[in-house]
Amino acid sequence: MWLEQLRRRLAKPKTSVQLCLLGVSAGLIAAFFIILFRLTILFFQSLFLETPDNFTTLPTLERVLMPLIAALLIATFAAFTGFKHYRLGIPFVIHRIKRHYGQMPLYNTVNQFVGGALALISGFSVGREGPSVHMGATGASILADKLHLPHNAMRTLSGCGVAAGIAASFNTPLAAVIFVMEVVLREYKVHIFVPIMLAALTGALATQFVFGEGSELALISITALSGWHYPYLILCGMALGAIAYSFNQNLMLIIKTFKPLSMFPRLLIAGCIASIIAYAVPQAMGSGMSAITIAVESPENAQLLTTILIAKLLATLFAIGLGIPGGLIGPVIGLGVLTGTLMAFFAQFISPGADIAGTYGVLGMAGLLAATLHAPLAALTTVMELTSSPEIIVPAMLVITTAYVTALQVFGNRSIFLQQLDFQGLPYHVSPATEALQKVGIMDDMDEDFKLLYSDDKEQIKNTLDAMDSQTPLIVFDEENGYRLAEYDLTLMSGETININYISLQGISSQSTLADAFDILKDKRSGALYVYNLLDNQQIMGLLRWDQINNILTIRNSLL
Predict the structure, then answer these.
(1) Which residue spans traverse the membrane (predicted)?
(2) Residue where a domain terminates, one of 184, 215, 246
(3) Which sign, positive or negative, has the C-alpha torsion 432, 436, 437, 439?
(4) CB 127 within 8 A of CB 314
(5) How far is it, in rounded angstroms, from Cα 547 to Cα 297?
């Protein structure tokens, strides 16, 4: 009984204690999977690495063979599990949330866990946030599915799982919330914002408990920049916007070029390229966080930083472009820090003797992240959280806005996630009407005051209608016609004869949203649906008419 009350409560598009508690639960589940994922990587890396993600100490032969063996294992596992379509990570999660309320296929997530772990253990230039987001969304989806929650609540909980995944990956709960709103859901609603915020907090606290509170950017020292730097920062932002556009274009070019190849040869080619880069520039291996350490330790070595930047750029493009499971954000952060540190060489002429390499490294990360992902606010909050430095805010805003506008208006750049979705043919566009109706469960607006009659006898139906209130709908059922809505057809009155009009009813699950009902009735712009219990399709719970949906769209839309 309490579960039924919970489902009815969650069908409403409002913040509630129940939804907040479920958001926390989704955050805990996501954190469990992500902690397990990170511990798996750390355990296996500890067997052959002195420092996690630092592959420079490995013997050359081991360093070269590891990506090849990992690519072979990833392809073999995917083939063994029958996983043929390599749709993973943040783009796939966006598609599932937009078009399937965040329901995630389990086999897909298992491949993401195993493949992502193998890729990161062996030094591929991919991020851990892609698998983390995928697993977080899956954990929330499983929770909602097991409790048979309305799909509008499942959609919110999937956003909670994504937020927990981002927060657990980078220890940035606020940036995780903004990322979900700005990139994944692409909307700001209070009743969604609060549980997602709690989930991000839960994910961050759980991972802090296991791995500590430190972050890679904590190594970077931030120095306040004078106003004389601002004109140069505008030029830096413009350059970062151009680099982001070039990165996105080349990544999509690699994806399109190698599309005719099946998954197995693509992954082996990725392993070969990673092995060549590992042989020549071992500092370019890893998720991208190791590049931050190098930039901090050797900010004056422009030749080394440039070499690592080029090698890491190639390693990231070919790893992601050829289908190695992993995230994009981690490597972009590393590339941004390297680029910003190199830009600091010219800034030394503005402030001679000042240690500004770290500041420019963070600003490079912020600008590249904002322009590549089309997430300026998420990039700004990431910088604020990772540095805990108020001095960085104004320069970061200047670089981020310049980079974003340059990439968007000058080059026509689009979010790399949306470009990947378009190429894969995964829809993510939702009409404003559908998006509004997706937030309301069908149980919130169905008419529960109805009469159900199991008979096709016209006289009995007529007598029932006579005995009922005119405002109460009558649903009749017989084996031949199924469920129908019976009502007097007052337009066909002839003398004392009153005809009965029947409207065929199609069933819809109590787990559905008004968007699902809208899709069924939108062609006729009339009619009605009966709502059946998800756990017992013989139990009719209510009736929903087209007029009620139309009322939502025309009158109550602003409330959604």
Answers:
(1) 21-44, 64-83, 104-126, 156-180, 192-211, 231-251, 263-282, 302-321, 328-350, 356-380, 392-411
(2) 215
(3) positive
(4) no
(5) 66
Residue 392 placed within a domain: no
How many domains does the chain contain in total?
Answer: 2
Pairing of strands 506-509, 528-533: parallel
Give the residue from 11, 4, 13, 14 showing the smallest Cα distance to 444. 11
Instruction: Name the residue range of residue 467's domain.
Output: 436-556
Virtual CA dihedral for 163, 101, 431, 17, nearest 10 degrees? -60
Place of tokens 């999937």: 158
- Give CA angle at 193 (97, 39), nearest 5°: 70
> Mean pLDDT in runs of 10 for the chain (560 residues)?
85 90 94 93 91 88 94 90 71 91 87 92 92 93 92 93 91 91 85 92 92 73 86 96 96 93 91 95 85 79 91 95 91 93 89 84 94 94 87 94 96 92 88 86 88 83 80 84 80 60 87 92 87 79 87 65
Residue 473 sits in a domain of what CATH number?
3.10.580.10
Residue 39 lies in a domain: yes
End position of a domain, from candidates 215, 230, 257? 215
10 Å Cβ neighbour count for 480? 5
Going by their DSSP bridges, the two strands 536-545 and 500-504 should be labelled as: unpaired
Q: CA-CA distance, 72 to 263, in Å (whole number)?
A: 11
CA torsion 38→43→47→49, rounded to 10°?
Answer: 30
Please give the torsion angle defined by the CA atoms of residues 442, 446, 452 and 457, in that order, rounded to the nearest 10 degrees: -90
β-pair partners for 486: 474, 502
**Helix, strand, coil share (%) of the chain residues, nearest 5:** 65, 10, 25
E-state strands within 462-517: 474-478, 482-488, 500-504, 506-509
What is the spatial distance between Cα 95 and Cα 101, in angstroms, rounded to a whole number? 9
Rg over alpha carbons for the chain, rounded to the nearest Å, is 28
Cα-Cα end-to-end distance for the chain? 28
333 in a structural domain: no
Angle (CA) 193-197-199 rounded to 5° is 120
Q: Count CA atoms within 13 Å of residue 431 on its CB side.
A: 9
Number of residues written out for the chain: 560
Edge-to-edge strands of the sheet including 474-478? 451-453, 474-478, 482-488, 500-504
Taking the C-alpha atoms of 343, 349, 350 and 356 in order, what is their torsion angle to the nearest 10 degrees? 50
Is there a contact between 236 and 37 (Cβ–Cβ < 8 Å)? no
Query: And the tokens for 506?
Result: 């199609």
Q: Find where tokens 């606290």 sit.
A: 205
